[in-house]
Write a structure and sequence with these properties.
The chain is α+β, with helices and mostly antiparallel strands. The chain contains 11 helices and 7 strands. Strand 6 and strand 7 form a beta hairpin.
Length: about 325
């Protein structure tokens, strides 16, 4: 709160005071008062007025700085009206009452929105678990009936299962920290489990996966890591080129981290789009070319990697290859 701004707000009062002083000065002069005496009265008036104005400004400024300090110390700013001290004037009291009413209405709205969001998330999670039962049943029926039609159905069922899992992970994204367990995980075992889950889908698309240079262990949550790997591998299959798809999965030990690299010889990504592939809903030119992209898979991967402390980056060249790099940090504390 600047003095010039505060003074500008008081201009109406100042003009009235000046006009009143001028009027009484003319009136006193008409009654025969000397100019020198009128000038002395003007000096006294200006001194008193300036003192009152300065005192009022400093009082308001001190009060404002106190409110600012209280606000800065609060983690939940909307509790300001409840936390701050008792109003010192009738104007403050009326203003704080209005503020409390507005903030109470706002907290009620937020509580209602949170409740609806929680109920919706719980419904989605319940629905997903219910859908897993028939999907598992279809998979068992197909595995017990070895035929070309059964294998095709099984491949599509794997896609349905992946879509259901994607919805579940998206619904739990806001509370991921409550649902993960960091422990030592074998990267090879993790990747092989993901490949097994998508076995028929990979076979139907003639995918060749090389894992000869895959080894090592990292500290992460196995379930969330498998979901991330699943999204990356499915994207590789979805965006394959006309030539047979080859996916090369390797690991490399660095000084401070372990890098898991997943490279495919698919259609690649344009250089101008690489910076946006993790944006929610971004499908790019490949997705708009009829690949049924939703722009959610890589977004979820990026969000989960951020929460798990995993670095993720993508390197690609259009028409040649795409490489997804996952950087797992090393820490002696995790080995305790």
């Amino acid at each position: 709160m600047s003095f010039s701004g505060w003074l500008h707000d008081k201009k109406a009062v100042l003009l009235v005071c000046f006009a009143g002083a001028l009027f009484f000065s003319v009136l006193l002069w008409l009654f025969g008062l000397e100019i020198g005496e009128i000038f002395l009265l003007w000096l006294c008036f200006l001194f008193i007025a300036a003192g009152l104005l300065l005192w009022n400004y400093l009082s308001l400024r001190r009060r404002f700085l106190h409110f600012r300090a209280v606000m800065d110390e609060l983690d939940r700013k909307y509790l300001f009206a409840e936390i701050t001290d008792v109003p010192t004037s009738e104007w403050e009291k009326a203003y704080f009452e209005l503020m409390k009413t507005a903030l109470k209405d706002m907290t009620d709205e937020v509580s209602q929105a949170n409740r609806l969001s929680r109920e919706y998330r719980e419904f989605i999670e319940q629905w997903i678990h219910e859908m897993k039962v028939p999907v598992t049943g279809i998979q068992l029926l197909c595995e017990n009936n070895k035929s070309d039609a059964a294998r095709k159905i099984l491949a599509q069922t794997e896609l349905i299962s992946q879509g259901v899992e994607r919805v579940l992970f998206y619904a739990r994204l806001g509370n991921v920290e409550k649902d993960y367990l960091v422990k030592e995980v074998s990267l090879r075992a993790c990747v092989m489990e993901v490949l097994a889950q998508n076995r028929q889908f990979l076979i139907q698309n003639d995918v060749c996966v090389h894992t000869e240079r895959l080894s090592g262990t990292v500290y992460s949550d196995q379930k969330w890591l498998q979901f991330i790997l699943n999204q990356i591998i499915i994207n590789s299959v979805k965006y394959q080129s006309s030539q047979p798809l080859v996916i090369d999965v390797t690991t490399k030990e660095q000084e401070n981290y372990v890098t898991l690299s997943i490279t495919d010889n698919g259609i690649g990504i344009r250089e101008s789009e690489l910076g946006r592939v993790f944006d929610k809903g971004f499908v790019g030119s490949n997705g708009r070319a009829g690949k049924n992209s939703t722009g959610i898979g890589l977004y979820l991967c990026d969000q989960l990697c951020s929460r798990l402390g995993i670095g993720i980056e993508i390197k690609s060249r259009a028409g040649e290859y795409t490489t997804v790099l996952l950087h797992f940090p090393k820490s002696e504390f995790l080995k305790v």
